[in-house]
């Protein structure tokens, strides 16, 4: 599984699941994020040092979409704390409670967790106890009032 998190709101804006972690898994998650956000200016994309994030396909996609790579230093797990926290929550709140008979069943359940619960409903202390979607709505409203 690969995810793209917006660090401002903690919203999962791109994600995908496949049987192997290759560069196309990471790129597919990033494609979803770009499609959802349609960035108009340069955006920094932070990743760990996995081979999928140093492939020529990854670098080409970043360049073609005005994205800039940022990568953790070797052994620096704190750079990825937000995504590690997400994976821990997903496992604790959903996956460890289920037995999936097929990959599609797992994918459907992860879709439900992300799109129907985590983004629109799950409250975060980082967001003043608002869900990622609500946090972004409040921020947009605050900009309109200025």
Q: Could you walk me through the main structural features you see in this protein, from its secondary elements to its overall organization?
A:
- This protein is α+β, with helices and mostly antiparallel strands and 146 residues long.
- The protein has a single domain, classed as Nucleotidyltransferase, domain 5, CATH 3.30.420.
- 45% of the residues lie in helices and 13% in strands.
- It has 5 helices and 4 strands.
- The strands form 2 sheets. Strands 1-2 form a two-stranded antiparallel ribbon.
- The protein is globular, with a radius of gyration of 16 Å.
- The model has no long low-confidence stretch (mean pLDDT 89).
Compute the CA-based radius of gyration: 16 Å
CATH architecture: 2-Layer Sandwich
Distance between the termini: 40 Å
Point out poorly predicted stretches: none
What's the name of the CATH homologous superfamily? Answer: Ribonuclease H-like superfamily/Ribonuclease H
Which whole number gives the mean pLDDT?
A: 89
Number of helices: 5
Main beta sheet strand tally, sense and closure: 2 strands, antiparallel
What structural class results from the helix and strand content? alpha+beta
Which of globular, elongated, flat, extended, rod-shaped describes the shape? globular
Order of strands in the sheet with most strands: 1-2
CATH topology: Nucleotidyltransferase, domain 5
- Helix content range: 40-55%
Element order: H for helix, E for strand: EEHEHEHHH
User: Would you report the number of β strands?
Assistant: 4
CATH top level is Alpha Beta
Q: How many domains would you count in the coordinates?
A: 1
**In percent terms, what proportion of residues is strand?**
5-15%
């Amino acid at each position: 599984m690969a995810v793209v998190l917006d660090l401002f709101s903690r919203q999962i804006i791109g994600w995908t699941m496949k049987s192997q972690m290759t560069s196309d898994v990471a790129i597919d998650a990033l494609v979803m994020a770009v499609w959802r956000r349609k960035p108009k200016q340069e955006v920094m994309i932070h990743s760990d040092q996995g081979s999928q994030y140093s492939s020529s396909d990854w670098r080409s996609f970043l360049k073609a979409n005005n994205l800039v790579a940022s990568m953790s230093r070797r052994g620096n797990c704190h750079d990825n704390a937000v995504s590690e926290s997400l994976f821990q929550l997903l496992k604790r709140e959903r996956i460890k409670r289920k037995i999936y008979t097929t990959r599609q069943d797992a994918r459907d359940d992860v879709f439900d967790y992300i799109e129907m619960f985590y983004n629109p409903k799950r409250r975060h202390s980082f967001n003043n106890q608002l869900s990622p979607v609500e946090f972004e709505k409040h921020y947009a409203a605050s900009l309109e009032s200025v």
